[in-house]
């Protein structure tokens, strides 16, 4: 059975030393989260994740969810009790708006907790995860009355939340939505249609479920310009806040999936269900994208989280399993029948790849998350502008890069186990199966890449990308005289140059023939991800050297951090070269064949 | 439900035009397999694979195998009936030795059939696959009596075969084997111990199962020098060939695995079972490696086979699924609500990656297989020497490179399906889960890489590698004046230069510090694989241009082949650069951390 130890020390390093969140204690919420408070939150969240959620992870995989004939869904044994504890402890409300049931702490503090929940039990963590997204969407687009009605209960997760986009004929292309909304004259609508793949769509853990549903108001424009967003609660809410009539929305079936068995993936049937318009008619996508962007960052974090827990278990196995001798005689443990496999370079390769990825990914996700806080809380317009730009630019990269390499990390961790990795009992298969969905949901990774090259690069006159380059250039200029940081600065400068070249190539070719942009998109996103990681590792190395210069007790921690960063620079960052080569190879050979030739 | 269409046309192209197997019709067996015979075999094998085995693939996944209390194992519904048909049609005997029940056809003809069986039903195909390996091992190392007793029944698969190496404490490191063999004075031994993860270890399809078991004869030397190989039949065989007493070998349990549920992966308990020594005492590994090398090629072929069937289904989905508009207006299907997703460059990228991999992989596997035939059948010592060198050198590359990229192909195929890929019903998850074992069994891919850099490069004074370089150089020299082939020749020459540089680096650094060789091993194997594929694509392009020059009816086939090869050169072969960079990065940062730091 796998275990999980929340990487609190690494999280502290990021918040305290690298991102130095104490700098922002003039902002709302930050002053309520000084180091001792943050540490206490992390410790408690870790306890809940490690001791309550993690032991339920395999239970969820084995039992899955079951649907009764009346459409009610039972979650795996123990899920409901864990959820009650979660609601009781108000974990869901950490970073919510204090006006509407939240505790107002910075989102970056919440991120640490969310990573832990996902690592311990991805399927379970999706229930509060989607609720958090529903909170954000109603907070962004709902009326004051809607906020008062729904947000406090969503904040604590007493009520669950879901997002309903997909229909059988409509996945990526939301213009194809057929679900209908008919106005009832009293401000309410009747919603009819079928939604599929609705995560947490129906379950037995929350007393109510607030569905956010995209639908087309009768007579509205075709395509994406006629899509509106509705709140469709499972139980209608009376004026006094108590629960009223059961709404006409039911779970019509559960999907048999490769993984995340503990999460109920539902077919949801809307049979004239009562819904309430969020924001303006026909402009529902804008608000749904608030939820989607929240969810995309959350999915990226899942990539990191599962890679982390898979890695931890691979390390434990690699230290324990004795097999073959170290290649160098001076590294052999002659007193044992064989050496622990962690002595073998190729095992190290897999562990180091994953370790260096995980730590870079955590820095990138938290750094992005901090900009989310600045966007919400900074009084400085310039800071908010840059933060908004960054959130837009980084979101597809966090989602796709972290899930793609997180999935690879899980696969490498399984590989370290050899044959045992393939046996379900050891739990590594579940990590690989669970995380596989993260490359798909909330927009496939290919869609993220198109979002990056097709929308995010050009937005606001390319200002987001220019800000990113400027930040890199500034970092390089500030630290170019440091001998310690030289390899990191050199690596970062190389990557930046390649990203610039890739961008230029896109500008020169993508406008004339959009297939060129499409053909380059995934390689461009990867090139971007590596470059962002290079900045993260340079920042981490700088912080680590600064701590060492200060004189600290746990020198080893900082030295190991730097050594891990060097591995990233030496052995992972060179991938940027091949991605640039592929971008510059163009679309011709990719698009050469007729469809019939496949 | 997925479907499968055996890629006969591609197989014909390889056998007829690229490898031109008719050149060898002076060799035993080849004269019995002219084009019309080969084509007829392929057509019949395709029918069996497509119509009988493929429909059982999901059945096997859903039902798995079941073990009764007495240790007997029942295979999934339909498996036994398919197996009977297989035995009846003598499919197993195609390339066996005519002296011992075989039909004597070239192994390369058999390869086509094996690819089809694996693609249609990997779990099922493992039963005859391991039997084939057992045949090869007894053929190579058994006494005349043993051959007469076992081979004819193994040839037809009336009896099954297994290989028993792994024990709980002993996987890669066979020196740790504890299973004991005690001589009985009558030439027989009593075998006692537990073997785990024995594929096809016990089942209800064959009337007898011939276990090939590694064990330690009491009093023999420690480590790998004291390991002997035994035949341990499930039922002892009487002198007249009839079945005698049930032997003391039983299945003690079945593993719950990530995939290949239709194959029985058994714990095998040997409780003083009667066994018969194969070859000399303490020299069992040598013969077992005959079986292992057979099996390694077979596993590589699985990588290709599952990638092929997954690709075919992804193509069908990509042509059928309408979602979003083509980026270029002139490629939009205005009469439909959206365009088939095969118009999208990033979907093309995944399909082309997999197509170019599959076709290169097939060429590489068959080209290697042809050398297996030459090794067995050529009267020319020089030819046999080179063929033996190639088999040794290429086996780890075929095994690891084809399974790693085959697994990637399956994952890309799943990704093309989007959310449907994650739903078990569509079958893509099964391909990903089934093929995952291929990176592990018969020696993990990391072990293959070590075998390549640690043993195969240096063997016979580096003669195998020198032959390979010489063959590449000859091809380049012969074709350097062809304008058509220029991109292929340039790509091949680049890759060759990098492989040479990687080899030099290994020679200069790996001897002084073997960790340098270990740290470079996986990247070296990938660099080698890409280079071999570059040669294959150059050969295929040459053959295709030659056919076009001849004037053929199906020009499109050959033009598409060339276009696919161009994609390989443009967009896949550049990976060689980064693998060389990683090799040259050395072991330092990979080995920098203490074990405690992970």
Characterization of this structure:
Two copies of one chain form a homodimer. By secondary structure, chain A is of the alpha+beta class. Chain A has a domain at 449-591. Chain A has 18 helices and eleven strands. Chain A has helices at 8-18, 35-53, 55-63, 79-88, 107-120, 122-141, 144-156, 284-320, 345-377, 381-416, 419-422, 428-436, 445-456, 459-479, 486-510, 514-550, 555-572, 575-585; strands spanning 66-67, 73-74, 159-164, 180-183, 188-199, 208-217, 227-233, 235-237, 243-246, 249-254, 265-278. In chain A, β1 and β2 (73-74) form a beta hairpin. In chain A, α6 (122-141) packs antiparallel against α8 and α15 packs parallel to α17 (555-572). Chain A is globular, with a radius of gyration of 24 Å. The two termini of chain A are 43 Å apart. The model of chain A has no long low-confidence stretch (mean pLDDT 97). Chains A and B meet through α8, α9, α10, α11 and α12 of A and α8, α9, α10, α11 and α12 of B.
Layout of helices and strands:
The structure is a homodimer of 598-residue chains.
Chain A: H1 8-18, H2 35-53, H3 55-63, E1 66-67, E2 73-74, H4 79-88, H5 107-120, H6 122-141, H7 144-156, E3 159-164, E4 180-183, E5 188-199, E6 208-217, E7 227-233, E8 235-237, E9 243-246, E10 249-254, E11 265-278, H8 284-320, H9 345-377, H10 381-416, H11 419-422, H12 428-436, H13 445-456, H14 459-479, H15 486-510, H16 514-550, H17 555-572, H18 575-585
Parallel strand pairs in A: 3-6, 4-6
Antiparallel strand pairs in A: 1-2, 4-5, 5-11, 6-7, 7-11, 8-9, 10-11
Helix pairs in contact in A: 1-9, 2-5, 5-6, 5-8, 5-9, 6-7, 6-8, 8-9, 8-10, 8-12, 9-10, 9-16, 9-17, 10-12, 10-13, 10-14, 10-16, 13-16, 14-15, 15-16, 15-17, 15-18, 16-17, 16-18
């Amino acid at each position: 059975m796998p275990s999980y130890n929340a990487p609190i020390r690494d999280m502290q390093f990021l918040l305290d030393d690298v991102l130095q969140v104490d700098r922002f204690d003039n902002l709302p919420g930050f002053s309520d989260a000084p180091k001792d408070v943050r540490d206490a939150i992390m410790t408690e969240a870790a306890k809940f994740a490690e001791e309550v959620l993690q032991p339920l992870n395999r239970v969820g995989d084995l039992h899955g969810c079951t649907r009764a004939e009346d459409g009610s869904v039972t979650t795996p044994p123990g899920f409901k009790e864990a959820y009650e504890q979660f609601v009781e402890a108000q974990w869901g409300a950490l970073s919510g708006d204090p006006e509407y049931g939240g505790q107002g702490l910075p989102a970056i503090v919440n991120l640490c907790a969310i990573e832990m929940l996902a690592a311990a039990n991805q399927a379970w963590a999706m229930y509060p995860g989607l609720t958090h997204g529903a909170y954000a969407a109603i907070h962004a687009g709902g009326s004051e009355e809607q906020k008062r009605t729904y947000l406090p209960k969503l904040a604590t997760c007493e009520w669950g939340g879901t997002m309903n986009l997909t229909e059988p004929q409509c996945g990526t292309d939301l213009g194809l939505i057929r679900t209908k909304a008919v106005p009832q004259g009293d401000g309410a609508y009747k919603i009819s249609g079928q939604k599929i793949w609705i995560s947490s769509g129906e379950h037995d853990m929350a007393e109510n479920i607030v569905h956010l549903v995209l639908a087309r108001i009768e007579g509205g424009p075709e395509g994406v310009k006629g899509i509106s967003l509705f709140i469709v609660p499972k139980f209608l809410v009376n004026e006094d806040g108590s629960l009223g009539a059961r709404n006409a929305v039911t779970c019509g079936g559960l999907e048999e999936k490769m993984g995340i068995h503990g999460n109920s993936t539902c077919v949801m049937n809307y049979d004239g269900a009562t819904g309430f318009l969020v924001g303006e008619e026909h402009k529902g996508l804008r608000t749904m994208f608030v939820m989607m962007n929240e969810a995309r960052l959350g999915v990226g974090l899942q990539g990191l989280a599962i890679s982390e827990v898979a890695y931890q278990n691979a390390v434990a196995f690699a230290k324990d399993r004795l097999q073959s001798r170290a290649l160098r005689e001076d590294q052999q443990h002659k007193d044992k029948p064989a050496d622990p496999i962690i002595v073998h370079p190729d095992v190290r390769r897999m562990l180091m790849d994953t370790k260096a990825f995980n730590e870079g990914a955590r820095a990138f996700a938290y750094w992005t998350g901090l900009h989310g806080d600045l966007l919400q809380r900074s009084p400085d317009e310039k800071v908010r502008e840059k933060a908004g730009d960054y959130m837009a630019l980084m979101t597809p990269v966090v989602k796709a890069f972290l899930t793609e390499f997180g999935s690879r990390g899980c696969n490498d961790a399984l590989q370290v186990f050899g044959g045992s990795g393939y046996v379900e009992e050891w739990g590594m298969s579940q990590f690989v199966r669970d995380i596989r969905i993260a490359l798909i949901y909330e927009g496939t990774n290919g869609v993220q890449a198109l979002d990056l090259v097709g929308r995010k690069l050009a937005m606001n006159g390319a200002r987001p990308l220019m800000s990113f380059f400027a930040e890199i250039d500034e970092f390089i200029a500030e630290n170019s005289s440091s001998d310690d940081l030289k390899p990191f600065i050199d690596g970062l400068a190389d990557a930046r140059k390649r990203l610039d070249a890739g961008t230029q190539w896109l500008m020169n070719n993508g406008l004339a023939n959009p297939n060129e942009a499409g053909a380059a998109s995934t390689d461009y996103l990867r090139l971007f991800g590596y470059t962002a990681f290079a900045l993260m590792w340079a920042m981490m190395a700088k912080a680590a050297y600064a701590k060492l210069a200060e004189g600290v007790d746990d020198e080893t921690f900082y030295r190991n951090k730097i050594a891990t960063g060097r591995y990233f620079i030496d052995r992972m960052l060179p991938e940027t070269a091949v991605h640039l080569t592929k971008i510059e190879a163009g679309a011709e050979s990719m698009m050469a064949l007729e469809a019939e030739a496949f």
